[in-house]
Predict the 3D structure of the following.
Amino acid sequence: MVWYDPSNPKNGNFRNGEQKGLGARGPLNFDGSSLLSTIKAVKPSCLIGAVGRDPNCFNKQVIETMLEVNPGRRPVVFALSNPMTKAEVTAVKAYGWSSGRVIYGSGTAMPQVQVGSVLRSPGQVNNVYIFPGVSFGAICCAASTIPEKFFLAAARGVAKSLDDADVKVDSVVPSRARIREVSLNVATEVVLEAQRLGLAAHRLGEDRAAVMAKLREMMWSPPLRDSRL
């Protein structure tokens, strides 16, 4: 947990401006080196592991504490370090220790988990859902630059791609079998954002439906191979 002293910018344990911007103001009144202590003090609704240096650090006590500080809510637990040997917690343990209450995502593909009568399909939170659509959209509208807002727009595109089947199995990302559909949705959001920001050299449409229709026309599809060949 990082902190800084507003009266003295050089005083604190932050390492860069990004950490300072998210750090606590003033010295911590809890043990910031302890994950459990930090969770109890900060009461986060989302816990993300992505450094790949402490496998299994989201242990049973951590999961139970996330539930305690989120009464009546489902906390998010993303174990994004990979390969699986580096994961902060597996889907089986996260669902098991929380009785299926946590919303789980992983960096490595995890098998489906049966929690009581409910089947859970942990989503693999991977950049494959983002970059193809971002590139496609940026190229099609000839964006002059790619700002961070494009990636926020892309995230909206992924979220809008979730369907009832995904929600039923508690997946945080759409089925990988629908990746072309997801990429089209992402590209549409990126183009709309580029046009809104004045970064699109080619305007593809005035609304979401028109932009998506134009992108669909421009989307490459592999030719079907003659089964007789």
